[in-house]
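Per reviewer request, we include the raw input and output of the structure prediction for the construct analysed in the revised manuscript.
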Amino acid sequence: MRSLLVVVLVVLSGCAAEPETGRPSASSIATSEDDNADPELVRAAGRDLVADGEPVRLKAVNFTNRYDTSITPADLLTSEHHSAQDFARVRDMGFNSIRFVMRGDWYEEDPQSFWAWLDQNVAWARENNVWLVLDLHIPIGGYWLDPGSSATSFDVWSDPALRERNVQLWREIAQRYRDEPAVAAYDLLNEPVTTDSSGNQWRDLAQQMVDAIRAEDDQHLVVVGGVYGVDGRFDPEGRERHVLVEDSNVMYDFHFYDPYPYTHQYAPWVDPARDGGRYPDPDHLTSTADPTVLPGERIATSSLPEGTSGWRPYDSGVVTIDDASAAAALPQAVVEGGMTGTVFFDRVTVTEYGPDGTRLRTVVEDPLNGSTTPVWYSWGNGDTAGSSVRLDREASGHQDDGSLSVAGTVDSGAGWNSSEHLFKVVPGHRYRIQGYMRGEDVVLTQGDRSRIGFKLAVYAQNPDAPHGGFLARDKDYLADAMAQHLRFGADHDVPMSVMEFGAVRQVFEMEGKGGERWVGDMLELLAENDLSFAYWEYHDSAMGIYLNKDGAPSQPNAALLEVLRRELPEDGS
């Protein structure tokens, strides 16, 4: 772990600084009590944002306000999470905005304290020439960000009265701040997860919220995010389903943590033991189209025998990839053909050798334990309704706490693979796959056409697919993933934003992880695409710019702070 550098922030307060381009100027944030002027607010203009007639981007950091604790509305007024000085520090780092987290129940429990707290922060924003994006992070009657929590609730989708209370909250916020230029936007709801299969529940509620806001405030920008899960399942690694509302002053948002296994490795709320690799990584590939298997390349272990057998190692031996079009490979645990019984897979390793047989590296070393089996996904006729095939992640294995299994009656093949293990291959090099298997009452039902084992699926380069069918983990990969979202903005001629992006502290502190490079590439891409954004987050022990949870900034993530200070002032707005 790198030792963190001590960073001293010198904040000049009480002096009139010349506002930078893209920040609300002192003259533009006069309150309605000062005069009757109609201040120019941040507005959507085609795919861009404008303020005071000039193009602008919101460059924000998230203030989470301890939303994930049991803090009360009265406590918010004296919370050590931040003070007026932190608004000045935000500007000093190069941000011009703060995405400001709110919980709906804070308002319901104590409206007077809630409004006093929010008014105080709006005043601090005004005094420091910083915009606020008001973010309803947790709605009244809904909680899905922690699927394992006892507080998980989707009642907001089934209870019309709950939905109306959330709509009414936005109506009151809009009424209170309709003439406030220090408020840049209303972010309607963070990462909605619906209980329907289409996401239309969120589309309908978003429109109701927009209509309520417009009944009081026809000026402020509204932020509408996509759907982050359907059927009651939060899916942070899935693609948001963007929804379009009927309003011309809207920015459409998506959150970007790609590649998720990298940005969230070792995160305690995901898996504290999960290593997500490095960035950039030329050997870690992502497919850009359905890959084409090269059937002539056979690198597979011997087959598990029939009957009942204990854990044993299986080995493909060292095999040369001869096809010049080979580009990538993926380890798989498979049942080919027909089978009855149960087979278990554990501890897979892939090794690469040079043409002369010299061992070059271990490409994949997956223990298939309780930490790594969640990123393996099943395929085969076990997905068919009524099928007797069962594909399970087991709680025990060969000398550890996990393994994968296929059980029941398999008619035409089934198995497991993990896209995280897709890797670059070199024609002429040699490869070897090894693993452990055991069986219970196994019968191979199609004779020589049935076999059970580990194998490498070898894929061809596809000249008709984007980037030849595969992208390494680098800036081009990030750009391709971002472009999938940006098509929505292009199709509808609307602005888009990334109101959350960030990574865990380990990618900055562990040697060779490349966190600074990832953040730098992200900031470049956001600038190149004229996207507003918000870094996640200001104070936090796992992902913060400052690794303390509360109080005056201390424990700076020095590497992250350095890249923010370097890139933010130079990104063109």
